Each structure stands twice: as C-alpha cells, then as structure tokens.
C-alpha cells in the first residue's frame, strides 16, 4: 500500500510540474527584475482590490530569471529592466513562446555612496574607471583619502546589463568588486560602508544613501523622461504574445493614470509627465 501511495504522490507531483501555468488556472504569475518589483507590487495590490476574483503571485530574482520563466512557461509576465536579448528571444521561439515587450515605466540608474561621502558628481568616464579598478581612491575624484569599495549588481540583473551598456561599454568590472543580488541588498551595503559606491534604480534611492549627479545632471522625473540624464531607461513587462484576458487587464491598469500614480509613488518615472501624479515616498 505504501508503495502505491508513493507512486500516486509522485505522479501528482509530476503532473503539477509538467502542467505548469495551465495548472494554475486563472492566476497570474509574475517573475523577474527586482528593480520593477516595487512597481509590480504596488500595482498588483491595487489591481487585486479592484478585481478580487483574480489571484496573482510575484517574485524577483533578476531580469534574467524573468526571461527564463517566460520562456519556460512558468510565468505569465516577465518583469525586466532591460530589453530581452536576441538569444533569449530565439530560445523562446524554439519553445513556442513569442516575447512581446510592454513598457510600463521609466527609470534612471543612480550611482550612490555613503551619506558622509563628500563627492557630489562623477562623469561616466570616472564611473567606468572606478568600476574597472583604475581609480581606487576617493581623493582621485575630489573626495577624501579613502579606498573605494566597489559594489555591483550580479550578472543576472537587468540593471547590471544597463550599467554595462551605459557606463562600462563592454569593459570588465574589476574582480575585487562585490556582486550583490538585489537593489535592497545594495542599499543596505552602501548605507553601512563609508568607502562604498554602487548603483540603483531611482525608486530604491532613500535617505540612507547619497545619490550622485552624473555628468553634472541630477536624476529626476524630468531629466529621465527627456533623456537628459545619461543613465535613463525603460522598464518592461514581457508577455507571451500580445497580452489577453486578465493579464491584459493588469498591464492596461499599470499603464493607466491610476497605475502611473503608483509608479510615481514608488519613486520611479512614469510613462509621461502629463499629470503631476505625486511625489516619491522614497
């Protein structure tokens, strides 16, 4: 009897694993970028209040994990802070998945340091040299005589990919750099280390860290929308084909005035500045 019971349980588990999203019924599964996570969390909660019959789940892990989940059909929506790569799209198509990008917000990647750091502005070239390990002391960029501790996002992060595009331009990050898995971990690490530098999505910048200007320009809604701020980007929710049903309703909500108010409330940059939707709480 025990053997039959075990086989039955194993068969049920196998069915759940194989059936994937089909087994989830009407629920919406969202995975991916930790940068997009606050936007997704805030809009998800508001959407579920308006649509109590819709069940939704949300997890982070990085843009790369979001792309993987969409390709593997274990998520309906992939949150990504970068565009899906050519090789990811090609792999998706081999599995019958057609990734479609839905731009839901804008963002600015902001270099951050400890609040006691006297440096206020760095050029893109200086940032690149710091991350390559060519500039190693804060006094070389107008700060105190202190060693620079370089902290970066890990390679599965869309923010890491964007930093590579805007700042590193394919140069390698110094091997001594600390690689952390989330924006939250970055905030904690920099807030505790007077020597540190790192970078965040604008929605994660708070009083525990000091944001730096880049090329003399402050990151803001206005400078991100105009692209005057040099580290500006779009944030995405990818779907398999054009969104339909409750998934489409949710993405439409995120893009709506009500959804964009939440984007701003979470400290990020809306799709347009047509309406003053509020001030960042962060």
Characterization of the model:
- The protein has 10 helices and 11 strands.
- The protein has helices spanning 2-19, 37-50, 63-71, 86-94, 124-132, 158-168, 183-191, 221-225, 245-255, 257-265; strands spanning 28-32, 56-61, 77-80, 99-113, 121-122, 149-153, 178-180, 196-201, 210-211, 213-214, 232-240.
- The strands form 2 sheets. Strands 1, 2, 3, 4, 6, 7, 8, 9 and 11 form a 9-stranded mixed beta sheet that branches.
- The radius of gyration is 21 Å and the shape is globular.
- The relative contact order is 0.18.
- The model is unreliable at 1-25 and 274-282 (pLDDT under 50).
Question: What are the defining features of this structure?
Answer:
single chain; about 280 residues; alpha/beta; D-Maltodextrin-Binding Protein, domain 2; 2 domains; nine-stranded mixed sheet; two-stranded parallel ribbon; 10 helices; globular; disordered N terminus; disordered C terminus
């Amino acid at each position: 009897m025990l053997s039959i019971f075990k086989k039955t349980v194993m068969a049920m588990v196998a069915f759940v694993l194989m059936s994937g999203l089909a087994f989830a019924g009407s629920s919406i599964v969202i995975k991916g970028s930790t940068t997009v996570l606050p936007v997704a969390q805030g809009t998800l909660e508001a959407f579920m209040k308006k649509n109590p019959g819709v069940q939704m789940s949300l997890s982070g892990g990085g843009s790369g994990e979001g792309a993987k989940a969409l390709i593997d059909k274990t998520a309906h929506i992939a949150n990504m802070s970068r565009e899906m790569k050519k090789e990811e799209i090609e792999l998706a198509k081999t599995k019958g998945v057609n990734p479609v990008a839905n731009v839901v917000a804008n963002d600015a990647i902001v270099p951050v340091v400890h609040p006691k750091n006297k440096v206020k502005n760095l050029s893109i070239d200086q940032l690149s040299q710091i991350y390559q390990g060519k500039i190693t002391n804060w006094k070389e960029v107008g700060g105190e005589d202190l060693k620079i501790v370089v902290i970066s996002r890990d390679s599965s992060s869309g923010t890491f990919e964007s930093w590579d595009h805007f700042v590193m331009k394919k140069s390698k990050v110094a091997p001594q750099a600390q690689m952390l898995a989330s924006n939250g971990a970055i905030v904690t690490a920099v807030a505790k280390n007077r020597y540190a530098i790192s970078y965040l999505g604008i929605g994660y910048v708070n009083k525990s860290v000091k944001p730096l200007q880049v090329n003399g320009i402050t990151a803001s809604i206005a400078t991100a929308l105009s692209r005057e701020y040099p580290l500006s980007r779009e944030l995405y929710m990818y779907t398999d084909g054009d969104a339909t049903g409750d998934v489409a309703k949710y993405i439409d909500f995120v893009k709506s005035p009500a959804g964009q108010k939440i984007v701003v409330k979470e400290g990020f940059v809306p799709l347009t500045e047509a309406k003053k939707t509020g001030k960042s709480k962060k």
